[in-house]
Amino acid sequence: MVNDITEYDVVGIGNAIVDVLAKVGEGFLAERDLHKGDMTLVEAQKAGEIYADIIPEREISGGSAANAVAAIASLGGTPSFIGKVHDDELGQEFRRDIGAAGVDFFTNPLMQGPSTARSIVLVTPDAQRSMFTYLGASTHLSVDDIDEKIISAAKIVYIEAYLLDDPQSAEAMKKAAQLARQYGRQVALTLSDTSCIERHRQELKDFIHSNVDILFANDEEICSLFEEKDFYKTLDMIKQEVDIAALTRGEKGSVVVNNRIKIFVEAETVEDAVDSTGAGDVYAGGFLYGLTHGRTLGTCALIGNIAASEILSHYGARAEVSLRGYVRNKLRQYGKTL
Amino acid sequence: MVNDITEYDVVGIGNAIVDVLAKVGEGFLAERDLHKGDMTLVEAQKAGEIYADIIPEREISGGSAANAVAAIASLGGTPSFIGKVHDDELGQEFRRDIGAAGVDFFTNPLMQGPSTARSIVLVTPDAQRSMFTYLGASTHLSVDDIDEKIISAAKIVYIEAYLLDDPQSAEAMKKAAQLARQYGRQVALTLSDTSCIERHRQELKDFIHSNVDILFANDEEICSLFEEKDFYKTLDMIKQEVDIAALTRGEKGSVVVNNRIKIFVEAETVEDAVDSTGAGDVYAGGFLYGLTHGRTLGTCALIGNIAASEILSHYGARAEVSLRGYVRNKLRQYGKTL
């Protein structure tokens, strides 16, 4: 069953979400009784109401795993994505956009039921962002969407923990991991966020222990997973569970744990960090690009840090320049090549 | 002038010393007014007197850089050594022994003047070691001994800081570094010991800044170099000076600093560590074997740590088993290959 030809560096599996950015006046939120700042999960009706009243400025495909594979494509890699959209306008938008980013995306859309997931990002004149996310069709990802040909054709299957939030998606995620193992592929997981970990801690631990080769998390998430306050102690805990743990720490840079080896890599200096949304996703994308291109773990983390620094410097979770050029120029300063 | 064919992984340049091991009774030291424990530098006459009175049990080629290249040979690498012996019995012994270890050694012997350097190691019934070192011919290494063909044929030139103790050897060391640069080879240096650093701190700093790509030191030595008590602070100081710093910390393992990356590697557990002599040399040999065989910096440090652990488990600075087999077996446990 094992096929040594891998067409893809990475296949990402996660929620397919369109980020809809719009500028609104200060009164817009208050008039609709909407919470300002942070991210709020909303139902279909609420999302529809907000969407009807705005003039979308930009609509770009988003979602954690999708952001990571888009970064891989921007670095010059060859990624694929599995996720569920509806066959509606936003779904078609997601498909066009992720395709234009260089990511293969073949998952069949929902023909009925909830509409494509969207995260409506309202930017008020004070430059604050208020996000309203409706998960819709994205939670309808099922085992039937896990294409054996794609899983077997990718060196690494990259999964977001958010998939555990829906029983159907959770089954899909487990099937993907099982297929990956069957074909001798590696399984990577991102812990998504601390509230997701709190909802599924034991299930996540079991999944990691049985399936995961490469774990991505930030310091808060890894501490939450083990219910341990001391970040340094979690390093010796996670090394028992996975082959590689790549842990981000904001301006403290990132740490890679590989058995008896711990690699500390400094963060890039970002003069005007305006928005950290997607930085973790892009770090993971950069790291996985390096790993699938034979780079050392230290260089993988460097690539991740540099790629993430591009995202920090503007709004939105997708790079505004070619990450390949951006990362290559920075790496050159450290005597390394991409 | 640059030749891309490198016959040797590493050429070591250092003091050529024969370690003479002998068992003596408790009274032997006291009768001769000799200091028990540690290492004492002695003059020719004193060395001759001690040597005349003992029954040498083992005579093996030693010296810091020589120990490192012998480890490289035992790991399956191809090293060479440059150092000065006299054409006396001990000198011939050094030549035979280092050759049998798999190290090329072509330096012309002294035909007159001081005899071959020796370190007489007296082991008393309480298992304590008292070392008496006579540097003799080894300090007569001169620029004429730095064979351009050998330097240009080695990927890395590995130098011990002890060479600064003699003006003639210091000139030879600088010529070797200059030739290495000319041929596009890397220069590695070991800081030898803290008293050596105290004698030559500024000269060492200048030499490192201008010539050294790879620095080896233990925690005490790197702290002494920068006159800085906090080991962690020295990591950010040394990264400005060299491409790679590989720093050992005894049972705390080792740390590799490479620009923005710091790699912490756990030490091997040694149940009955009896003698740390040569452990730093063998670590450097293991690290350089990895580096010249395309291994990641983390794996280089692992190889160094494992090779050093073999040395710790018995008396003497040379491995008692094939380091290649020993290291390969340990690495396999960590999912890595040699």
Explain what this protein looks like in three dimensions.
Chain A is globular, with a radius of gyration of 19 Å. In chain A, 40% of the residues lie in helices and 21% in strands. Chain A has a domain at 8-14 and 63-89 and 139-333: Ribokinase (UDP-N-acetylmuramoyl-L-alanine:D-glutamate ligase, 3-Layer(aba) Sandwich). In chain A, helix 3 (64-74) crosses helix 10 (279-291), helix 10 (279-291) runs antiparallel to helix 11 (297-312) and helix 11 (297-312) crosses helix 12. The mean pLDDT of chain A is 91. The first copy, chain A, is built from 12 helices and 14 strands. Chain A has 338 residues and is α/β, with parallel strands linked by helices. In chain A, strands 6-5-1-9-10-11-12-13-14 form a 9-stranded mixed beta sheet, with helices on both faces. A 5-stranded mixed beta sheet of chain A has the order 3-8-7-2-4. Strand 14 of chain A pairs antiparallel with strand 14 (261-265) of chain B, so a sheet runs across the interface.
Task: Please sum up the structure shown.
In chain A, 40% of the residues lie in helices and 21% in strands. Chain A has 338 residues and is an alpha/beta fold. Chain A has a 9-stranded mixed beta sheet with strand order 6-5-1-9-10-11-12-13-14, sandwiched between helices. The first copy, chain A, has a 5-stranded mixed beta sheet with strand order 3-8-7-2-4.
Helical element count of chain A?
A: 12
* Low-confidence residue ranges of chain A: none
Mean of residue pLDDT values of chain A: 91
Q: What is the CATH C level class of the domain at 8-14 and 63-89 and 139-333 in chain A, in words?
A: Alpha Beta
How far the N terminus sits from the C terminus of chain A, by CA atoms, comes to 33 Å
Listing every helix as H and every strand as E from the N terminus to the C terminus, the arrangement of chain A reads EEHEHEHEHEEEHEHEHEHHEEEHHH
Largest interface: A-B, 19 and 19 residues
| CATH homologous superfamily placement of the domain at 8-14 and 63-89 and 139-333 in chain A | Ribokinase
